[in-house]
Fold this sequence. Notes:
CATH topology of the largest domain: Nucleotidyltransferase, domain 5
CATH architecture of the largest domain: 2-Layer Sandwich
Number of helices: 13
Shape: globular
Distance between the termini: 31 Å
Structural class: alpha/beta
Strand order of the largest sheet: 3-2-1-4-6-5-12
Number of strands: 12
Low-confidence stretches: none
CATH class of the largest domain: Alpha Beta
Helix content: 25-40%
Order of helices and strands: EEEHHEEHHEHHEEEHHHHHEHEHE
Largest sheet: 7 strands, mixed
Amino acid sequence: MKILTINPGSTSTKVAVFHHEKRIAKATIKHDDGEMLMFETLADQLPMRTTVILDFLQEYDIHIKDIDGFIGRGGLLRPLDSGLYEVDAAMMADLNANTYGTHASNLGGLIANTLASQVGKKAYIADPVVVDELSSVARMTGLNGITRRSLFHALNQKAVARRYAEHVKIPYENLHLIVAHLGGGISIGYHKKGRVVDVNNALDGDGPFSPERTGSLPVCGVIDLAFSGQYTKEELLKLIHGYGGMFSYLNTKDAEEVSDMLASGRVEASRVIKAMVYQIAKEIGGLHAVTKGALDAIILTGGLAYNQDILQPLIEMIEHLGEVTVYPGENELESLAFNMRAFLRGDIEAKQYAKASS
């Protein structure tokens, strides 16, 4: 059983091939900034991204006809239940048109489908960022007409939650977990018996600030900025989810660079890291309150979980709430392979995007 997994990013394409549970090839293919500027739309990048993956397969002497499963990272689609989805015509139409937003992950299903169709097979995505299992009470805001949207690191959150469930030998559907994905964006979700019933929107300005995103902001301050004449709408959006957070204070999105600043005694770096950890802990604490004491574990994951200047003070702030387990890294390719493997073995069924509703 061979599985090809694809995770497109804004400046790179991550790809791996798995033979059963073992990864036999992996690469992060960087894309030159100048080259990327030549493409007017995301869809225009499809031939280039497909070609570099075919080159990758050739480099490792892997024949595309020998691939049993093709799976890409899910992009911005309409709200969906968790699961594995076939890349059908309706999904391709939404991804090509960026109907629900523009993000490099929109290419995941399109690339997988382009490759799979060459050998007469179907392509799939799993647990896209738009997985929406919010409870009705969590969906409400303080203003009629604006509702909370579920947009989070569903693929990694679901994967580490299931990994923990396997470790403790309790079905995921029987557990109460708080999972915190700590990366360029930060999402913290309450997994109640297999469903993420509450989670901050990690993209649109909700929850803790992160290395590059503002998180929640005082509304009146945002209104003042919006009407200041200094920014267009597009520029403000980029500020919120590309150049906010840690970057806006320290001019870097790299947590390791910030650790170097801490080691050299830079006071501002210490202040920013303390504030980010404080906000993460506060978000976890808020979700702990609504578990009504039924919490089984808090799981910390994502790239920032490798950074001890963030991880250790965070654990110190939350360990009184219950068991804390750490699964560092984002592991998207492994998570995609896990889902594809389960489908090929007949453990799960593929859902149809055209027929699905969250």
